[in-house]
Amino acid sequence: MQSANMLLRKIVRCSVLPFAAQHGMKKDLFPLSRTLSLSLCLKQEKSCEPSEKLDLDEWKKVMKSGLQEEVSETVSEPKELSSLAAARETLEMWRLAGRAVPENISEEQLKTFTECPSKSAKKKYLKYLHLKELQKKNDKRKMDEKRKRRLEAQDQASKTDETKKNSFVCMWSSTMDKAYNWRAAQSMIFGQPLVFDMSYEKEMSVREVANTVRQIVLSESCNRRSVDPFHIHFCNFKDDSLYHREFIKQYREAWGKLLITVTDQCYTEIFPKDKLIYLTADSPKVMKTFDHDKIYIVGSMVDRSIKTGVSLARAKRLGLESAALPLEKYLLWSTGAKNLTLDQMMHILLTLKDTADWKKALEFVPKRKYCGFVNKPVKELKKTLDLINTLKLGKGREVQKQFAKSYPKKHKLKQK
């Protein structure tokens, strides 16, 4: 009996178990083996000792250990897939329930959703994704509306331009351009030179150079449209410099067609020194009248940090005469520095050249910088301004004493 049981065990282990493991018949194998062992035991003697019986628990352990490696490889992937599928099902359920759930969600977002520690964290994460999706949709809708409005505006503009652009307007604009170019060409032969000193690139930042070039472009257009334009010279101009690159950005293809003189030479090498006057706000000498025989130099510099004395030092180093505009003589200056932009300087010089009237010329100074034009002597106006400022500060008795000394009659009348 014992030998028969042993033979049965060996046969099952050697032949049946590997075949069942390969074909996935593990679960069905246990009842078959159990029935075989029991049937043999029943046919023989019924009084068998418990040690002779087959231990089914140990048999299960042996079978599990043999198939553990294969099962672990096949089970790992379905677990991940099942967790993602379950997460998608929960999302669909929450969407049907009316919760804030995104319509489209990627696998990475699903993984982060499953890794959230609590249910509230999952809800917050889904709400964040939902709001992000809504924002993207809103931005796309706005872009589409903006594009649609732009196309409609272009269509309307094209229609209006077609109606406006008749033959007379086109002829007028072309003839005016020809007239301006003819004046600029004449100024290159017969006009009074005006020099822009382009040697201040190292003194400025890239942004300040860009602002300088914009102001020079405005100055050139203003000069081209004037009745008697200057012959503009760009001196100390170097190729492939910041000035050069900014001018190409502004003018593009028209840079090579400008009716101006561009040179890398210094103005002292082109013109005689006795005719050159450097216009700078730091000069102690004040310009009284405009001289048509002189050649004025303007520093091509936008100074936001107000570096005083840079252009004056350059004029002194070259041995040139300098001059400043008579702003204090004709304007009641209130606040701010006395530095003007390059296009304002061009307007002032062109007006002086045409009219020789300082009042008309200085109208191009920004009105925020001065209170009005001077009608009284400058000393008296300075005294009154100082007194007004001290009264605003509230210095009481000292102000009254100064006011009594300067205006004794008015003070007595007030006391009476």
TrEMBL record:
Subcellular locations according to the entry: Mitochondrion
GO biological process, one term: methylation
Principal subcellular localisation of the protein: mitochondrion
Recorded catalytic activity of this chain's protein: an adenosine in mRNA + S-adenosyl-L-methionine = an N(1)-methyladenosine in mRNA + S-adenosyl-L-homocysteine + H(+); guanosine(9) in tRNA + S-adenosyl-L-methionine = N(1)-methylguanosine(9) in tRNA + S-adenosyl-L-homocysteine + H(+); adenosine(9) in tRNA + S-adenosyl-L-methionine = N(1)-methyladenosine(9) in tRNA + S-adenosyl-L-homocysteine + H(+)
The organism's taxonomic lineage, starting at the top: Eukaryota, Metazoa, Chordata, Craniata, Vertebrata
SAM-dependent MTase TRM10-type domain location: 180-372
Residue ranges of the region described as Disordered: 138-159
GO molecular function: tRNA (adenine(9)-N1)-methyltransferase activity; tRNA (guanosine(9)-N1)-methyltransferase activity; tRNA binding
Name used for this protein in its record: tRNA methyltransferase 10 homolog C
Transmembrane stretches, start-end: none
Superkingdom in the source lineage: Eukaryota
Database matches in Gene3D superfamilies: 3.40.1280.30
Organism: Edolisoma coerulescens
InterPro entries the record matches: MT_TRM10-typ (IPR028564), MT_TRM10-typ_sf (IPR038459), Trm10_C_MTase_dom (IPR025812), tRNA_m1G_MeTrfase_euk (IPR007356)
